[in-house]
Description:
The complex is a heterodimer. By secondary structure, chain A is an alpha/beta fold. Chain A has a single domain, classed as CATH 3.40.50.880. Chain A contains five helices and eleven strands, in the order βαββαβαββββαβββα. In chain A, the strands form two sheets. A nine-stranded mixed β-sheet of chain A has the order 2-1-3-4-11-10-9-6-7, sandwiched between helices. A two-stranded antiparallel sheet of chain A has the order 5-8. The longest helix of chain A has 12 residues, at 209-220. Chain B is built from two helices and three strands. Helix content of chain B is 35%, strand content 28%. Chain B is elongated, with a radius of gyration of 16 Å. At the A-B interface, loops of A face helix 1 of B.
Amino acid sequence: MKFGVVVFPGSNCDHDAYHVIRHVLGQSAVFLWHKDRQLQHCDAVILPGGFAFGDYLRCGAIARFSPVMEEVARFAHRGGTVLGICNGFQVLTEAGLLPGALLQNASCKFVCREVTVEVENEQTPFTCALSKGQRVRMPVAHGDGNYFIDDEGLRRLEGEGQILLRYIDNPNGSRANIAGIINSAGNVFGLMPHPERASESILGNEDGRGIFESLLRSHAQ
Amino acid sequence: MIARVVVTLKPGVLDPAGKAVQDGLQSLGYAEVQQVRLGKYLELTLEASDRSAARARVEEMCRKLLANTVVETFRVELE
Lengths: 221, 79
């Protein structure tokens, strides 16, 4: 399976994602510069964590207008698999590829620690190697992870099974303890925790690997 | 022409930073402060002659980039 990892100025988890795909999972990976206008026939695109364009104005607000994002949007609308991690999740909401918005943490503090999330829907390409109700631990590191959506939007997410991960110990005040959501078409997933930082035993945690294993499994089918 | 843009969170969207400022003011003895909403202020210098056309353009900029209308509202003043 071939993954494209988008690199914005200020991305800082791009190499972590690349490393996990290439060296841990043994798959193919390429970097996609934010000015690129083609996705090199990737099967999936990852928008990595970081601080694209310094988080100026709002997290992800400038990055979403990068040339590569036009291609990512086209790819997503054709059903292509897109995974946004942390800053990548923020970019996806700003781009309108996922509903809602990510606001400043309720504590007004940057939070950097491991959290526990529960898998709520395992019938997606991003979670099919996990099981419903399974609790996984992954690190978070963000100042703006407080997911907000209005009442009607929340009802829709709940009703359509679009909430894939919920915090057991909510670190940021996000609505309904939401840690990760999928779009209604089921091919775009954004989450605040970092699966790419928890995919190797040498790092003391392999729980995040389930997200990548899910993508491989669904791609093989 | 100068356009002054103020962006704030919509009513009903929690503003933890605004709340922290409110708590600060109250602890200084300003008990009358009922609420603080923190926002952004942007000043745009424009090359424009037609005020209503300029306003329409700046409002478009707000909707596209300067504000995230999912959670924020904006106000434009021209000088």
